[in-house]
Every structure is written in C-alpha cells, then in structure tokens.
Amino acid sequence: MHSQKEYDKIVSNNPQKGESEMGKIRFGTRVHDMGKGTPEEMFEKIGTHGFQCVQLAYKKGISGVSSYGDVTPELVERTLRAAEKTGVDVAVHGTYVELSLVDEEARKKQTADFISQIPYTKLLGAGCQGSETTNMSKQPVGTTRAQAQRALLKSLEEIMPHAEAAGVTVAVEPVFYHAMNTPEAAKMVLDSIASPNLKIIFDAANLISYEDVNRQEAMWDRAMTLWGDKIVAVHIKGVAFDDAGNFHSTVLEDSCLDYPLIARYVRQLEQDLPVMREEEKPERTENDLRMLRQWFLE
User: Fold this and answer.
1) What is the pLDDT of residues 118-132, one digit of tens each?
2) What is the rounded distance in angstroms from the CA atom of residue 126 to the CA atom of residue 148?
3) Lowest mean pLDDT segment, chosen from 2-11, 66-75, 241-250
4) What is the rounded end-to-end Cα distance, in angstroms, of the chain?
5) How confident is the model over 195-207, as a mean pLDDT?
6) How many CB atoms lie within 10 A of CB 218?
7) What is the model's pLDDT at position 213?
8) Whose CA is closest to 49, among 35, 60, 63, 62?
9) Exposure string (b/e) for 74-90, b if CB count within 10 Å is 16 or more?
10) Closest CA to 196 of 229, 152, 155
11) pTM, to two decimals
12) 202 forms bridges with which residues in the sheet?
C-alpha cells in the first residue's frame, strides 16, 4: 500500500491522470436533514442554502410519504419540476432497506421494496439508488457476518438485473458495524456480483471504528486502491469516540476524521462526485460549505 506522500507522487508523475482529467466536485445534503415538506418547499430551501444536489429519501424528507407505495409518478414529476426550478439535482435516491437480513421472508420484502423504486430513480435522473447493508444488531442473535453477507449477495443478485435493464446505478455503503463492514468486504461484494451498475457510496465516518482512528491513512489507502474508481457519492459527517469506544455525532470541526487527508484522496479520482453533508443543520450550512470548499476545492 502507498502512503499519501507516495500516492501524491504517483499521481503527479502519471500523465494519464493529470489535473485536467480529475472529476468535478459538487456539494449537497440529505433532504431530511433540512426538515420535511413538499418537494417544492424542500428543494427551494436547500437551494437557498447553497447546495447543488441532494440525497432524496422520500419517506424521510417529503410530507405525505409513509411507505414506498406512496411514491408515485406524479410526485416524481413534481420533484423534477422543483429540481429544475432551483437547479438542485438528485444525486442519490436514498432507499432505506435492509438488504442483508438472514430472515428470508423479511429479506425478500426489503428487496422487493428496493426494486419497486428503481423506475423512480430512472425518472429522477438520479446518479444512483443507494442503501446501506443492515446493522448486525438487527439480525437474530448468533447471526454471523458471513451469513449476513450471503444474504446481501442474494438480495443484490435479485436487484441488479432490474437495475441493469433500467440503466440505473445501485450504490451500497460500507459501514463497520453492518454486513459489508470493511474495504475488503465491499470489494468482495463488487467482485461477486460483477455488475457494471453496482457502485459504492463512500462515507469515511462509517468505515472508521475506534480501533482505526489512529491508522486512517491505511484505511483510506485500502479503500481507494480496492474500489476508489467505483465511488459514485461521498458522505461527510462529524464523528468522535469516547474512551469506551462509543461513537457519537459532532460538528465537522470536532470530528476525529482527517478530512483534509480524505479530500486529497477523493480529489485524485477521475469521476464527477457529489460530496454530501450528512446530519446538516440549516444554521450551520454557511460554515460547513466553507469547510467543504476548503477541503475539496482549494
């Protein structure tokens, strides 16, 4: 593995990956972090606060949507008009489901919910339809991570033909306490499914456990080496750990994450990327956007 200094040297000496070929960065937030309302209200609010794109989870951010059955072509059309009016696009269509449940009946229901939203991801023109891969605490006692990962692969095997037929990108997010918990586990999933439409959402705060806080460079090097070119969205949020190893949310300034280092890795990627501020608060957007621009653009 390369250190950051070695990585930067490789990039600077590689004429095939010059500055002009690096991807563009734009900044966004999750709709539900800014409240809940109609598509018109939420896109106007988010655009006014200076964001260029959103992660849209209809059940969490849009009034009147309590189930995936409440998402309709008419609602999507309203969303598209709001996006066009404000210039705020949908970078991630967030479909919060549990793809790794070992209970087969429950897994099939969650997978069907995800598949039901693929046509709407297509209509929205979203960059991807995203999901995490199930907290291990939601599994029956005694469930192993290997069992959870097999359930995840089964779900993705059912999902990806629908996504490929629709021309939709599906993105899964590694989380250290979920089924897909490490860079290597994410690589295994990508290789096992072997679909060009399966990608990764990169959330550094979700990959770092208490044990890894002081060895972040190795973690980001592994992630970028294994699947950096498969990243389609980046999540940014503050996190810290207490002495017992329990994590909690923080403002960006107090985060234990080395975001300047993370940003240097992300900036070397060639694909265009939305960088999404998670857990945003309206009163903090000016400060947070200033920090994001400093890390990712300057």
Assistant:
1) 999 999 999 999 999
2) 28
3) 2-11
4) 26
5) 97
6) 12
7) 92
8) 35
9) ebbebbbebbeebebbb
10) 229
11) 0.91
12) 234
Q: Give the residue carrying structure tokens 């008009």.
A: 81
The dihedral through the CA atoms of 28, 282, 261, 149 has a sign that is: negative
- The DSSP code sequence of the chain is ---HHHHHHHHHT-GGG-GGGSPPEEEEEEGGGG--B-HHHHHHHHHHTT-SEEEE-HHHHBTT--SGGG--HHHHHHHHHHHHHHT-EEEEEE----TT-SSHHHHHHHHHHHHHTHHHHHHHT-SEEEE---BGGGSPTT--HHHHHHHHHHHHHHHHHHHHHHT--EEE---TTBSS-SHHHHHHHHHHH--TTEEEEEEHHHH--GGGGGGHHHHHHHHHHHHGGGEEEEEE-EEEE-TTS-EEEE-GGG-SS-HHHHHHHHHT-SS-EEEEETT--GGGHHHHHHHHHHHHT-
Q: Which pLDDT belongs to residue 21?
A: 54
- At residue 22, the pLDDT reads 80
Give the Cβ contact number of residue 260 at 10 Å: 11
- The letter for the amino acid at 283 is E
Each residue of 241-265: pLDDT tens digit?
A: 999 999 999 999 999 999 999 999 9
Block residue for tokens 């992630």: 223
Q: Using CA atoms, how far apart are residues 19 and 38, in angstroms rounded to an integer?
A: 40
Q: Which residue has the tokens 């009016």?
A: 85
Amino acid making up residue 155: S
